[in-house]
Specification:
This protein is an alpha+beta fold. It is built from ten helices and eleven strands. Helix 5 crosses helix 7 and helix 9 crosses helix 10.
Length: 294
């Protein structure tokens, strides 16, 4: 199988909801404070991000010889299944229709998307993948793999690549396991247990997003519980996840309120490296408020 070189950690279908009428994004790169115009295909991606390397070779296409595109293919398939439900959610927002199956399914799709983006971010994924040697040592301390497992690996030519196999298993578990204790499921369940409140932006100010487009207030990282979470859904709509039953299901924000949401997203975490918007003005205001909050 041909390997997908540019592998995205923020789904392109999500980024497309923040493009302008020409399909372009106004972008800001945090590292060097660069401003530029781009497309969803060219941002929030790394070369061979989800591939595992044999023989210690990095970012070398010849090195990727273990289940090429295995993780990337699963992620692409999951995104393809998720996108229609997410689109229905935004259609419900447009129609102000929140008491139907499409909205309920779309709300869960947004929870899945948020959890997925968090756990597959390179900084998050890299930290967990770095544990491959430790996991392998624990396996060996517990008696190692069975003779049957070793024979299977030998037959595949992977008998000397246990660290590589462990790396792949870590990604498979983090991104696709049904076990309730893995971070993806804990984040998803924490979001799904909350009410989703929809906020609409006015025509003169749009929501922006980032390469880590979710922030949590009052979060307990051990239990994954939180008070409120915020996520922009598109340049026109955003979601608040809360237990507060007194907040209306839908509200229209003022220009100033959207500007504060945008600035709060930039201040909400230190993980994002890229901010994008459909309109340069919204990005300008958010960056200015981030740098001079008072």
């Amino acid at each position: 199988m041909t390997i997908t070189k540019r592998q995205h950690y923020v789904p392109r279908f999500y980024l497309r909801y923040f493009t302008n009428s020409d399909g372009k994004l106004h972008a800001y790169r945090r590292e060097d404070q660069a401003r530029f115009t781009t497309t969803p295909e060219n941002v929030c991606a790394e070369n061979y991000l989800y591939e595992v390397d044999l023989r210690g070779l990095d970012n070398n296409e010849a090195a990727h010889a273990l289940l090429d595109n295995y993780i990337e293919g699963q992620l692409s398939g999951a995104e393809g299944r998720l996108a229609p439900y997410y689109n229905k959610l935004l259609q419900c927002c447009k129609e102000k229709s929140f008491d139907n199956r499409n909205f309920l399914d779309g709300r869960l799709a947004a929870c899945i998307l948020a959890a997925n983006i968090i756990v597959r971010h390179p900084l998050m994924l890299r930290a967990d993948r770095a544990n491959a040697k430790t996991v392998l040592r624990d396996v060996e301390a517990a008696g190692g793999i069975t003779d049957q497992e070793q024979a299977a690996l030998d037959q595949l030519g992977l008998g000397e690549s246990l660290e590589t196999v462990t790396d792949l298993a870590i990604m498979q578990t983090l991104l696709f396991s049904d076990h309730q204790d893995v971070p993806f499921n804990r984040i998803y369940n924490a979001l799904a247990d909350k009410r989703m409140i929809i906020v609409e932006a006015p025509a003169l100010m749009r929501f922006i997003t980032t390469s880590m487009p979710i922030y949590f207030l009052g979060i307990d990282e051990d239990s994954y519980s939180f008070d409120v979470a915020y996520m922009p859904l598109s340049c026109r709509y955003a979601a608040l996840f809360t237990d507060d039953k007194n907040v209306r299901q839908f509200s229209r924000a003022t220009v100033e309120e959207v500007a504060r949401f945008n600035a709060s997203l930039l201040d909400g975490n230190d993980i994002w490296d890229l901010a994008v918007a459909s309109a340069s003005g919204a990005l300008d205001v958010a960056l200015r408020k981030m740098k001079t909050p008072n």
